[in-house]
């Protein structure tokens, strides 16, 4: 359920695209500094959005600089780092470890087991720093696992488990903005879970895996119903976002929320339509 929170690059201004890449690069560097190469390997775009969200809301001092990396060895790249880079690096490792544990349980992947063992000590440190958040994430994933094992078909219930996870990640501290940040993360998390289920539906049907959308797949209005559900989840997330007094990086965030998060949905829908036409 990772990799859905991305930008819609063609619709983004050059300066905003460069800023987005700078924070992504900063998150990558921070992951390596705090958690080594194994921690850096967990990098994904999802937590870059959280860095930008919290940076735009709280406006901390940002350190800008130039750096090189193995992925882009031929030139210097701009990086942007602040206090939320460290926070999101820790959350990134914590979420990645939980995903690895889920992979070990569900698919018995040896690679996931090894990666989980490598990250174990680093995750222990993160849990010590954020015990309440770690407890919420673990409890929510356990609730989700139990729901999936019993074949739960209540979409609100199963998607809400993942919603709780993003809600606690997006809420950096208890203050006047905590409720809106939690609401934003909760509905964004529900959207991501359901979009992931939609994206995996064909695969899960072939493999006989659990997917909460399977009972709906034969309905004539299936596509329209899924789109409306996803639209409703994203509308609630966007409503919470628009209440937050974010000016800096707001255009990047709107690009993600109103465009980027829908890219895989439309890609999957187009692919399925082509398959049906053949």
Write the layout of secondary structure elements.
Elements (H helix, E strand, L loop, with lengths): L13 H27 L5 H13 L4 E5 L9 E5 L1 H25 L2 H20 L1 H19 L5 H16 L7 H30 L14 H22 L6 H9 L4 H15 L1
Antiparallel strand pairs: 1-2
Helix pairs in contact: 1-2, 1-3, 2-3, 2-9, 3-4, 3-5, 4-5, 5-6, 6-7, 7-8
Structure description:
The protein has 278 residues and is mainly alpha-helical. The protein has helices spanning 14-40, 46-58, 83-107, 110-129, 131-149, 155-170, 178-207, 222-243, 250-258, 263-277, and strands at 63-67, 77-81. Strands 1-2 form a two-stranded antiparallel ribbon. Helix 6 crosses helix 7 (178-207) and helix 7 runs antiparallel to helix 8 (222-243). It is globular and about 55 Å long. The relative contact order is 0.13.
Derived structural class: mainly alpha
Query: What's the gyration radius in Å?
Result: 19 Å
Give the spatial strand order of the biggest sheet: 1-2
- Low-confidence runs (pLDDT<50, min 5 residues)? none
Principal-axis shape equals globular
Q: What is the overall pLDDT average?
A: 90
Helix count equals: 10
CA distance, first residue to last residue:
29 Å
Strands, count: 2
The biggest beta sheet is recorded as:
2 strands, antiparallel
Helical amount: over 70%
**Amount of beta strand:** under 5%
Order of helices and strands: HHEEHHHHHHHH
Explain briefly what this protein structure is.
By secondary structure, the chain is mostly helical. The chain is built from ten helices and two strands, in the order H-H-E-E-H-H-H-H-H-H-H-H.
């Amino acid at each position: 359920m990772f990799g859905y929170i991305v930008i819609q690059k063609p619709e983004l201004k050059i300066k905003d695209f460069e800023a987005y890449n700078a924070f992504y690069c900063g998150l990558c560097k921070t992951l390596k500094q705090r958690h080594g190469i194994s921690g850096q390997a967990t990098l994904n775009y999802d937590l870059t959005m959280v860095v930008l969200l919290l940076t735009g809301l709280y406006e901390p001092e940002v350190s800008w600089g130039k750096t090189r990396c193995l992925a882009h060895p031929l030139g210097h790249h701009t990086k942007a780092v602040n206090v939320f880079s460290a926070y999101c690096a820790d959350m990134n490792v914590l979420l990645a470890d939980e995903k690895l544990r889920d992979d070990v349980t569900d698919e018995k992947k040896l690679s996931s087991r090894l990666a989980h063992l490598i990250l174990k000590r680093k995750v222990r440190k993160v849990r010590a720093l954020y015990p309440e958040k770690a407890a919420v994430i673990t409890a929510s994933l356990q609730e989700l696992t139990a729901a999936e094992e019993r074949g739960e078909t209540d979409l609100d219930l199963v998607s809400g488990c993942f919603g709780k996870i993003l809600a606690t990640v997006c809420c950096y501290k208890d203050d006047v903005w905590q409720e809106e940040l939690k609401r934003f993360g909760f509905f964004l998390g529900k959207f991501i879970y359901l979009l992931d289920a939609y994206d995996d539906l064909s695969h899960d049907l072939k493999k006989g895996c659990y997917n909460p959308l399977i009972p709906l797949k034969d309905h004539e209005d299936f596509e329209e119903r899924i789109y409306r559900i996803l639209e409703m989840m994203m509308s609630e997330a966007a409503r919470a976002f628009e209440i937050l007094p974010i000016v800096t990086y707001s255009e990047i965030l709107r690009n993600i929320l109103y465009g980027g998060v829908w890219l895989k949905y439309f890609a999957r829908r187009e692919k399925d339509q082509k398959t049906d036409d053949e």
